[in-house]
Amino acid sequence: MENSLLAIPKEKKLKPAFVLALLVHLALLVFLWIGVSWQSETGDTVEAEVWDIKVREAAPRAAGEQSELAAAEQAELQAQEESAPPPPAPAVKEATPEPKVTARPDIALEQEKKKAEKKAAEDRKKAEAKQRADEARAQREEQVRLKKEAEQASRKQKAEAAASQKRAKALLDQEARRIAGGGSGGGKGKGSGGGGTRTTGPTGTGGSGTAARSTGPGTADAAYIAKVRTKIKNNTSFNASSAIMGNPPVIYDVELLPDGTLRNIRKRKSSGIPGFDEAVLRAIEKSAPYPKDKTGRVPSRFSVTHKPKD
């Protein structure tokens, strides 16, 4: 039975089927023509009927012919389906990456240049601010230093003035005691007066005393005065400031005992600088005892002149 269904029918059996198929196609064409004509007349809707050539309605055939024809058509359809290539798989669309937005080279260089200029300006401002702060701090420190030095100089000057007054008072007291002792000695006996008494107190300041110091015996010569002036200068401790106007001298008259120790110191002329006058006075005291002159004796008196900038 299977062999009879799959067998190709003979040519004489296909003629009625061919005629029937032709009739069906003619009928289909007629219907299509009628449909097209009707559509052109109405213009509203389009209707089409599709006829499947597989479905055939015709005069009843013999049961054997119909089964053979159906088996042949089924075999042909299966062969077409098997031989038809599979539908291609849909292509997978690859996602295209978004293009990166890159800055133009000249714009990037301009931005870098602006950043560098901004940073340089900030650094310059910081350096200027630091310099101003350092200068202000140095100025404050200098003012504090100058103030301290001025205070120290003022205290030193006051101390020197007090010491000078104290020494002057001591010399005055000593001179008063010497005068009192000399008067009592002169009343007691001949030749026991002040000429033979050793004292470091001040001598009188009358005209006769001054003349004796300048022209009397025992006055130091120029060579001796130059020698002792150098010694006194080396012992003088004083820093001459640039604020001192000119180079004013101080003059001291010095009286010595025979052993070279001091008997009296009198300031004949002040330099106008109390600190310098006091420094020279201390140097005269520090230089004692004084040496002998070329005759082998110590001069009884000499005058010394000293300047702050010498």
User: Using only CA atoms, what is the Rg?
Assistant: 73 Å
Which sequence of strands runs across the widest sheet? 2-1-3
Question: What is the strand content?
Answer: 5-15%
Question: Helical amount among residues, as a percent range?
Answer: 55-70%
In CATH terms, what is the architecture of the largest domain?
A: 2-Layer Sandwich
Low-confidence stretches: 183-216
What general form does the structure show? rod-shaped
By secondary-structure content and strand pairing, the structural class works out as mainly alpha
Compressed to H and E, one letter per element, the order equals: HHHHHHEEHE
Count the strands? 3
User: How many domain regions?
Assistant: 3
- Looking at the structure, the CATH topology of the largest domain is Fusion Protein Consisting Of Minor Coat Protein, Glycine Rich Linker, Tola, And A His Tag, Chain: A, Domain 2
Helix count, per DSSP? 7
The main sheet comes to:
3 strands, antiparallel
InterPro entries: Tol-Pal_TolA (IPR014161), TonB/TolA_C (IPR006260)
GO molecular function, one term: toxin transmembrane transporter activity
Biased composition (Gly residues): 180-209
Subcellular location: Membrane
